[in-house]
């Protein structure tokens, strides 16, 4: 019997100049907008100029919230939602890497819903959620096409996802010109995040027929683009491919969730300030070695899609893309493992995984 599931309500518009060309699409969303972005990059990469021009062409009033931090915490997303509420925003435009996009999505929920910090991640009765437009300027998170907002929860010493279909962006505008200002380091780290979404989505217990087609397509593109950027070759066409592969990865995890690898990576980000994509990359090879012990066929599909001969080749490729120079004590690894085991996405891991398995993967990787 054939079974499949796939849900993606986001209108995806890609291409050079797509925000300016499609400016009139914003008029249906309201008369007042808040633009949620990071501190600097949107001003440098041209995205904010295009957004402001599009809003002005529609005579939409707007306010800019440009204080989103990397890996935003609850306090930071509340600053954005308070600004939206005070301004009376009808809709939100998130522009930037995954951090501003996720802050925009969380603010869309919190603007008209007063929910205590401890209930944010479990609350299900969201009403009057503001529509979100997402404009990614990194090629990695795929947040422009997911229902997740990843927020740092200091009360639990980790990052957690708010998940609601109401925050799937209405429109995602993908213009690779905005990613041209990325440093080589952020380009590589975020590309490895895209890889981890395709890989984890492919192996997830929740994978579906269609999500796996998207995952394999994303991995095929990354199999060509990752070695190129590792050798320092990057041009506009490559940036377009990375942005496309990243969007596909987002569409995959919107169906499948992530797995133990993301749960583990969150501790490296929270405690050691390691960028999200790099954190996943540091752990990925050992994680796949563990998975391949019980499920060799899915790992070999992944390697084949990437055009790699084995996990050792994957490890070399990732090693050429990201750095690994932090030290971690045995106590720290125990703490990371205990926190990772409590994450919701552990349940999507395709083979049973215990706390000592997680600890071993950490030990071998770090
Ligand atoms: P980020 O934290 O959004 O941005 C990292 C850095 O890159 C910031 O300093 C930012 O500067 C800069 N930057 C962004 N775009 C730039 C550009 N075009 N040129 C130059 N610099 C640029 O990094 P990210 O890796 O994209 O996002 C990570 C976050 O996304 C994490 O919190 C992760 O958990 C989350 N995530 C969410 C999902 C989801 O489905 N919701 C999926 C995966 C990951 P500014 O601050 O000045 O903008
Ligand atoms: Zn990720």
Query: Beta-strand level of the residues, as a percent range?
Result: 5-15%
What is the count of DSSP helices, taking H or I runs of 4+ residues? 14
Instruction: Identify the overall geometry.
Output: globular
User: Largest sheet, order of strands side by side?
Assistant: 1-8-5-4-2-3
Q: Regions with pLDDT < 50 over 5+ consecutive residues? A: none
What ligand molecules are bound, each kind once? NADP nicotinamide-adenine-dinucleotide phosphate, zinc ion
Helix content: 40-55%
Termini separation: 43 Å
Q: Note the main sheet.
A: 6 strands, parallel
Record the SSE blueprint.
Layout: E1 11-14, H1 18-21, E2 32-38, H2 41-44, H3 47-57, E3 61-68, H4 74-87, E4 91-96, H5 98-110, E5 132-136, E6 148-153, E7 158-163, E8 171-174, H6 184-203, H7 209-230, H8 236-256, H9 260-272, H10 276-294, H11 296-306, H12 311-321, H13 330-341, H14 355-365
Parallel strand pairs: 1-8, 2-3, 2-4, 4-5, 5-8
Antiparallel strand pairs: 6-7
Helix pairs in contact: 4-5, 6-7, 6-8, 6-10, 7-8, 7-11, 7-12, 9-10, 9-13, 10-11, 10-12, 10-14, 13-14
């Amino acid at each position: 019997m054939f079974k499949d599931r796939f849900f993606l309500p986001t209108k995806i518009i890609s291409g050079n100049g797509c925000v300016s060309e499609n400016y009139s699409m914003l008029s249906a969303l309201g008369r007042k907008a808040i633009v949620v972005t990071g501190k600097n990059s949107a001003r440098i990469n041209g995205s904010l100029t295009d957004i402001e021009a599009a809003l002005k062409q529609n005579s939409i009033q707007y306010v800019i919230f440009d204080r989103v931090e990397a890996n935003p915490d609850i306090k930071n997303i509340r600053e954005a939602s308070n600004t939206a509420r005070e301004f009376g925003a009808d809709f939100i435009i998130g522009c930037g890497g995954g951090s501003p996009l996720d802050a925009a999505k969380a603010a869309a929920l919190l603007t008209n819903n007063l929910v205590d910090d401890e209930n944010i991640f479990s609350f299900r009765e969201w009403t009057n959620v503001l529509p979100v437009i997402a404009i990614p300027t990194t090629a990695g998170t795929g947040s422009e096409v997911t229902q997740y907002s990843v927020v740092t929860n200091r009360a639990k010493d980790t990052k957690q996802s708010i998940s609601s279909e109401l925050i799937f962006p209405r429109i995602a505008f993908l213009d690779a010109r905005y990613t041209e200002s990325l440093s080589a380091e952020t380009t590589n780290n975020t590309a490895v995040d895209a890889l981890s979404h395709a890989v984890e989505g492919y192996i997830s217990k929740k994978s579906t027929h269609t999500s796996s087609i998207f995952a394999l397509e994303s991995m095929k593109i990354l199999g060509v683009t990752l070695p190129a950027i590792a050798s320092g070759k990057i041009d506009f066409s490559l940036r377009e491919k990375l942005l496309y592969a990243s969007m596909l990865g987002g569409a995959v995890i919107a169906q499948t969730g992530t797995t133990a690898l993301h749960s583990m990576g969150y501790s490296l980000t929270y405690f050691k300030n390691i960028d999200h994509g790099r954190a996943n990359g540091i752990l990925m090879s050992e994680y796949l070695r563990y998975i391949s012990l019980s499920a060799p066929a899915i790992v070999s599909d992944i390697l084949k899609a990437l055009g790699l001969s084995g996990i050792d080749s994957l490890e070399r490729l990732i090693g050429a893309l990201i750095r690994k120079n932090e030290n971690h004590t045995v106590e720290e690894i125990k703490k990371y493992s205990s926190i990772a085991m409590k994450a919701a996405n552990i349940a999507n891991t395709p083979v049973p995984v215990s706390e000592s398995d997680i600890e071993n993967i950490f030990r071998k990787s770090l």
